[in-house]
Amino acid sequence: MSLKTVLILLGLALATIFALVCVLLTRERIPRSCQHLPPEQEDMEDSQSLVFADLTAEEMSQVVRYLQGHLGVPLVEASRAKPSDNCIASVDLQVPAKAEVLRFLDAGGARPPREALAALYFGNQPEPNITEYVVGPLPLPAYHRDVTVQKYGGKLPYHRRPVTGKEYADINALIQRELKKAPRFLTACCESDGTDLAILTTAPRGFKSGDRVTWFVLFHNVAGTGYYLSPVGLEVLVDHGDLQVSRWQLRRVFYNGRYFASTGELEQEFVAGVLEVVRLKQPQADAVLGSLKPRRPPGPPGPLPFESQGPRYSVRENRVTFQGWSIAFGMSPNTGPRLFDIRYRGERIVYELSLQEALALYGSNCPGGMSTRYLDGSFGIGRFAYELVRGLDCPYTATYVDRHYLVETDTPKTNQNSLCIFEHDSALPLRRHFSDSQSFYYGGLRKNTLVIRTISTLINYDYIWDFMFHGSGAVEVRVHATGYISSSFFHGQGTDYGNRVGPHTLGTMHLHHIHYKVDLDVDGQLNSLETQDMEYEFVKDPWSTQNTIERPYLRRERLEKEDEAAFPLNAPMPRYLSFVSPNPNKWEHPRSYRIQIISFAGKHLPTSSSMERSISWGRYQLAVTRRKEEEPTSTSVYNQNDPWTPTVTFADFINNETITNEDLVAWITVGFLHVPHAEDIPNTVTVGNGVGFFLRPYNYFNEDPSVDSSDSVYFSSEQDVGACGANPLACLSSATACAPHLPPFHFGGFLNL
Which ranges of the sequence are coiled-coil (predicted)? Predict the structure, then answer.
């Protein structure tokens, strides 16, 4: 063999070795197919977030046992309690004071004692009342203290208590007894004896403090369908204010535009032939208005999102972490989802982000509809967040979390899988650019978002509550409304209050207004409020002074007082409004987070209304106040049944205190006006019925933080874009081989009803 041949073979061998080394090095950058990788972990100790954790079922039971043994009064289980009894209405977490929590989280202080807040109805007392106790320390309670006067400035009158399930059952029994007095009318109008009619409450209950008088609306009820769309035209007014159920009375009856003193009078007029009756057929299940049963056989399945190498987020106890985000999550049985200690890249952005209230206010020419102003917190936004349907309410492979609550019972209840957490690929770039000049390249990043979701079913409506965390450092809060519309019986000038959506069904106009608390801590607790907007100035061009230029300029303003920072609903608001820190970023601008509201709210109730102060938070699309421990919520569950003397009046929070370099809270109202129409049958769709707000970094960073994302994509015209090591998108073909192992479908959401 010649020397030349040897050299050639040696060169080929070296080239082969070099190529193999390159391939091996490239493969090291690619995770092995189908390998589940552990999600990124944060430095914060998992146990610290437990300071915000909802009560466990065992802790709730311990509180009940303690109260039963230490109050010295007889207690009847709320599910059986009459108005004249004492009972435990609810038990929830007593969130510790912020100062105590921050000493623990940030300064190595002692962990605040874990406590519960218990609400009790005392009907078996000389002066019936509602009392709230703080009970602690958990898990083994040893003390309780009455905090009612401290929280509310006085005792809570008994008539303000929410209506319990037992009270509703007793009301239904009264209505059934009264309906028996009009048998021939019911047969003629409804093909019914009354026992198969559904009965729906309205609220509030009267016109002045102390009233407990409620209109109830009657509907045809067909199993498996939404009765809300089948009113029969009959409504009854029940006085249930007396502590003795035997003294409750039916005060008025409404039918098809007319009012009667009793069902007996209604029957007499029918028998006499002077009552105009609309004869309704008993609806059939296969043809009833509002059936959700599929009309076609199932087709092929749609796209299925899945994590080829396992979730990239981590859920431990009540804390979720994801790509720099850390969030403690929980659920109030009354007000629903609440988040605490929201951090990005180790820095706290938001101390508390919580839902406060959901208002649905109706119009109609029927008494039930025209008087309805539901304050859903009093019914239980969190309590009625039931099990989520895997693969529809949330992605099939999402993480599902159980929530426990204790309301109207001595035994804790569990809504299994009622909160879900998942990473969402929005199929939209978070950012991208294709360069077609000077040099040719492409750079971009997918918009992947962490989502925390729960869904509340509040009588007819379903509210989808979303909290989303973006790679840009932004927080997005969104609510969608779906479910059934509420309706009235169509008669007279009904279309002045909505649209006809069935033979005898009026879809009644209403507004949805939602209120949130956002305790922002931007680069520390001490923040100020800054607005920015544009104006035009007319100037001569400086190079010739012959022409005029309309030049936009930026108008900045620091708001000094709370009154300046209360922006009326639907009034113009500065386009940029930010919580600013005293500390600058690299470019000498204050580190800030901007509040951006997306809302189509209806008109707020006129301030001349006798009940307006109970929902005075709705006056403002945004109000910024100094944070106070004694102003933890913008409303109260007791406002629903006494809106004329509200237990909590948000308008009183705004008293022109200074808001410069203070611990501030943003109170945000979003909502929309809904005029039901034919396409709301059978259900309102989520399309176009979503509102919310963003918290967006504004000079908080020195650049877009998403540039550090490991999901970033970049390639140039000089690269092999099909090489997996150079372009992550080229790795997807192998990842698709990692089909997920889906757990069997299961749903237990009907078990707790």
Answer: none
